[in-house]
Amino acid sequence: MEKFSATKGKVCVTGAAGFVASWLIRRLLESGYYVTGTVRDPGDGKKLAHLWELEGARERLRLVKADLMEDGSFDNAVMGCEGVFHTASPVYVAGSDPKVEILDPAITGTLNLLRSCKKNPFLKRVVLTSSSSTVRTRDDIDPNLPLDETSWSSVELCEKLQLWYALAKMLAEKAAWEFARENNMDLVTVLPSFVVGPSLPRQLCFTASHVLGLLKGEAERFSWYGRMGYVHIDDVARCHILVYETGSARGRYLCSSTVLDNHELAALLAKRYPFFPIPARFEAHYGKQDYKFDTSKLQYMGFKFKGIEEMFDDCIQSLYTQGHLP
Ligand SMILES: NC(=O)c1ccc[n+]([C@@H]2O[C@H](COP(=O)([O-])OP(=O)(O)OC[C@H]3O[C@@H](n4cnc5c(N)ncnc54)[C@H](OP(=O)(O)O)[C@@H]3O)[C@@H](O)[C@H]2O)c1
């Protein structure tokens, strides 16, 4: 398959301190790339320590300040980069105004970043981290037809169920596609399902803390996931790099290994790790969901997904190492 170049150039990763971005930066540095990571607070040494510990970081990583809500904030970070990986996005609504907290930063923030990218004459491709929630949140799914990249979630259903994260990711991705078309920009999107695996940041992100909760016996937070696809964090990072490096990559790429109902996941985990008090019952918030994912687009590129056991084994190992599990 056609590759951009044998020598690894300069790339930018937004939201560098995050769960997914940190692992992506690890793999990019290992591959020989020069990486500019954006963070909101470059002075927060504690939050960024894990990045400076990565192999190659001292020689080939630089961290710069950028905020999604500031126009032009990413100009400096992306200038001179051939590739931009846009992972930064709010994933948690703490307060009462989802529009301000999650929709605006996702949509306006993505457009701010793309406007900065447009000013960079060296840019070859932008890889945007979207989400499988932009595909599966709909009430007209035929259980016999696996969902692929042609599927888009329903705005009305997201609003009705107040699924602000799914709505934000979908509107941000759609805005990015429109911008790319209008500005002739090479954009590829990656749509991971629920990401599981070792966390490089010491402080667990929203989803990783929910996995920890599940292992400790909490049913409430996980019950909201209902039926869900799962994917290993290393597969998510490798997928971003593969679609960046493969010149012929086009459009959206669903990145998901296994789809399970939460009681199926819990049964599997309870059998594999009988020493954890994994809950057996979950409240059903959405009624019956019946969907599968068709990830053949990625698999045709030679991509192989790690299984559910490996992602949880690696995740649990890291939770022990970081002291989150006794
Ligand atoms: N985790 C999953 O299961 C999953 C699944 C599908 C897709 N995704 C997508 O993967 C990406 C990364 O998520 P994650 O799980 O790694 O979450 P995370 O650890 O919370 O990382 C999110 C990052 O976004 C940054 N961010 C948030 N608001 C920002 C703003 N206004 N300006 C600049 N940066 C901002 C945060 O920066 P600070 O460090 O400054 O707070 C953080 O680094 C997101 O796009 C998410 O939608 C995640």
From TrEMBL:
This is Tetraketide alpha-pyrone reductase 1. InterPro entries: Epimerase_deHydtase, NAD(P)-bd_dom_sf, NAD(P)_dehydrat-like. One of its GO terms (molecular function) is oxidoreductase activity, acting on the CH-OH group of donors, NAD or NADP as acceptor. Keywords: Oxidoreductase. Residues 11-247 form the NAD-dependent epimerase/dehydratase domain. The lineage of its organism: Eukaryota, Viridiplantae, Streptophyta, Embryophyta, Tracheophyta.
